[in-house]
What we know:
The structure holds two protein chains of two kinds.
Chain A: E1 4-13, E2 21-31, E3 36-40, H1 47-54, E4 62-71, E5 74-75, H2 81-87, E6 92-95, H3 109-120, H4 128-138, H5 155-167, E7 173-177, H6 185-202, E8 205-210, H7 213-219, E9 222-227, E10 230-236, H8 237-242, H9 247-254, H10 280-284, H11 319-327, E11 337-346, E12 356-366, E13 371-375, H12 382-389, E14 397-402, E15 405-406, H13 412-421, E16 422-425, H14 439-450, H15 455-468, H16 474-478, H17 487-499, E17 505-509, H18 517-534, E18 537-542, H19 545-551, E19 554-559, E20 562-568, H20 569-574, H21 579-586, H22 602-608
Parallel strand pairs in A: 3-8, 3-9, 6-7, 7-8, 13-18, 13-19, 16-17, 17-18
Antiparallel strand pairs in A: 1-2, 1-4, 4-5, 9-10, 11-12, 11-14, 14-15, 19-20
Chain B: H1 2-28, H2 33-42, H3 49-59, H4 66-78, H5 93-128, H6 133-147, H7 150-164, H8 184-221, H9 224-231, H10 236-265, H11 268-273, H12 279-288, H13 292-320, H14 322-325
Helix pairs in contact in B: 1-13, 2-3, 5-6, 5-8, 5-10, 5-12, 5-13, 6-8, 7-8, 8-10, 9-10, 10-13, 12-13
Amino acid sequence: MSLVSVQGLSVVYEPNGAEPVPAVKAVSFDLEQGDFVGLVGESGSGKSTLGFALTGLSRPPARVSAGSIIFDGVDIAGLTPSQLRVQRHGGFAMVLQSGMNALNPVRSIRNHFFDIFAAHGHVSTRDREARAAELVGKVQLPASVLDRFSGELSGGMRQRVSIALALSLEPRLMVFDEPTTALDVLVQHAVMDTIRELQKSERFTAVLISHDLGMVLEVTERVMVMHDGLIVEDATAAEILAAPQHPYTRMLLSHYGDPRAAVVEVPGLASRGTERATDVAQAVAGGAPVGEPVESQGEPVESQGEPVETPVGEPAPSAPTAVTVRKREGRAARESIVVSGVSKVYPRPSRRDQPVTAVNDVSFTLEPGASMALVGASGSGKSTIAKLITGVEHPTSGTITFGDLRIDTIRRRQLKRLHTEVQMVFQDPYAALNPLHTVEYALTRPVLNYSSLRGRDARRRVLELLETVGLTPVEQFAARLPHQLSGGQRQRVVIARALASDPQVIIADEPVSMLDVSLRAGVLALLDSLRETWGVSMLYITHDLLSARLVTDQIMVLNKGSVVEEGRTATVLQNPQDEYTIRLLDAIPAPRSGAKGGSRHPQESSKKGLRPPATVPTSSPPATVPTSSPPATVPTSLTSPRSPS
Amino acid sequence: MRYLLGKVGLLLLTLWAAVTLNFLLPRLMPGSPADAAIAKLAQNGPVSPSTRAAIEAQLGVPTGSAWDQYLQYLNNVVHFDFGVSYTFFPQSVASLVGTALPWTLVLVGFVTIVAFICGTLLGVLAAWKRGTWLDTLPTVGGTFASAFPYFWTALLLLFFLGYVAGWFPTSGAYGSAATPELTGTFLLDALYHSILPATTILITSLGGWILGMRSTMINTLGDDYVTFAEANGLHPRTVAIRYAARNAILPNLTSFGLALGGVVGGSLLVERVFSYPGVGYLLYTAVVNQDFPLMQALFLIITISVLLANFIVDILYGILDPRTRR
Lengths: 645, 326
């Protein structure tokens, strides 16, 4: 008998005085003892709602409206809260998405454990100290964390603690709801490893809810893909990799790629091979489009005659010239941002701490029309650099110039001039727009501030901006309030706002990290096209190496405030020299190469392409893998139509 | 410990600053009390030198350097010597304040604490049983009651329960026949007299505590650690008290500190309406009669009580919130 059997389960949201919204629609599946199952979907797919229902945590306005969840012979959907509470010991546990906030800030970690032991009485007062120490040991934390409060722990440690707490219930089913999403890239990887090891050693059934298909494919054996409240695909990880059946799964899959590959592309984004020959700076200067000779480091041969546009030798687009010249009339000539020897030291936070060097002797030049990636884990100083370039903060030493403007010593009065040319796109589109004002208002303000357009002209400019970022029909979008827009649409508004002053430089700080995978490509393509058609240069700040590979030509890798590696994006990512860059690359879930710690030599790995499905951690016999997808054809470009060759 | 020492140090420093300001401010003003009195007289005609000398002798003229005066002042403050009241001559300011302070501290202080505790508990209950009658009744009732200005509530109670029904005395802290002493009869009499003013303060301040606690509690109920505690099968009472309410009370402590600090100075209207012999009533009398020594002493007392209340709340924070201890 299955451990969990879900039959025709429906969950509806019934907000007060509003129409009920179905979130999970008659879903059925079984979970066997010891399964490790991934539940993948984008925001709004109902995956978390399903996870909460599985662990008996559906709370108003959510309600299980139909169906049953048979857990070990008992329908937990029909239990009263107090019956359910008793079931939790030895039953089902949940690890929440934001493990950062899953701990009571005013209770010590020890008391968290003791509360659980007291609630279920399964650990006596005599044994509880030893048991708590043993549990934190299982998540690789020292027993001393028991004395701590959550505010004294890092994000990764907190998430480990909440895993240990869930484990203290001795559950047979553990549901992990986006357990690593809020964590730093490198920490994510480590926490995921812990979860994987625990699942093997403790033998519980695990459900991993995530938006990240790449990670789920790497970690789990079986994957359920959820879309619009339905499970649209339920198959082994190997099967999904080899032959995804549902169009939605295929779409999700198509947005993953290996930044190390010779040619990387996702739908909607032009392929970017070894190097791009665009030299917008020259185009802007009115020079003839010059196709730069391109070194061919990667091997486009890998695409094996697929209809992938090979970028090598592609002439620079000449179209932007005309557009740009028209647009830039009466404005300052294009300038580079030159950062030289810049450091930023923050005073020590308290008497016992050392001063924090956020940025340490960083130099680079952002040429007109260039696109440069600034990558690093959190705390690497990449956002501080954005603040320094936008004049929000002044560097401790070094100079930053933009034409004749000294940004490093800029005064308040000159900021307006700087911000006419340098604009910022923020990470969180949900927080970057005032919820009380319409899109039109949000865009009119900068138009009035930075241009001489007034009245009808200003409005025309606003609509023009909306058109530029692809929010059509423009009249309709102009009248909307932020909450009436999707995340991707909001981010387009934020981009339009940044464009309102007609800037030369856009600083994009993690512009897509809050967005669903399927929306990311669109926003990235928009940013990329701005550069090509308008000649806007872009500093793209991210921890996501794949997107850096997709939209930038140059890259700088930051670690603890220092540049550890820089160069052409494709070159650096394909042949990383610094240990830190390699670690960042290895932290990317690599469903294609199966196990972690995949080859550090991209040329080799891309030649090998997909490893045989047998190396994907799966219990299913290789025979179930459709033979129509020989690994060799799936190598580098995820969009490649899988021709059964 | 380190936290406690820091807070004690801060308290001493602010106390010193308050006392010094109280010394400096009157001296920064042009003229002296004698000048003010003479100027008043001068409106009715010329003031003879002998009158001037008499007034100066009566009110006193500063002698010695500013530093000597300051040391003298500090010495006086330490010995609770604030001079003689103009209004209640020849009673000393210290004895006047000493008589009034206990009445206010006991009545208003006690009621403020009771209101905070009751309001917080009702707020916890309202948030935990959200949407039931346990939520609606205290919330609506509290909002309704605290919507009245409190002197208006005081007048209503005074009129209906004191005057019309005659159940409670309408003024004073004890019956005219009684003399203040520590006997059972006197304490009962004082208690009887305090019911109306206490009820007034309770009614008008309870609603604020209920609403404040309810809304912060509803916020913490939506926090992840509450969901996680439920997911771990903790007892509902543990979740409500130790997880939700325990965190929800923290922001309300600040308001409690402010309310506690306002106990001494803020009871003016209630004490005026009920002719209650507390600090508020005394301050009112002092202001009306331009009794400068009394006012100066009362302002100092009010400042000190605010500082002490903040100190108490800081200590409470240190106990209740581990994040402040670092």
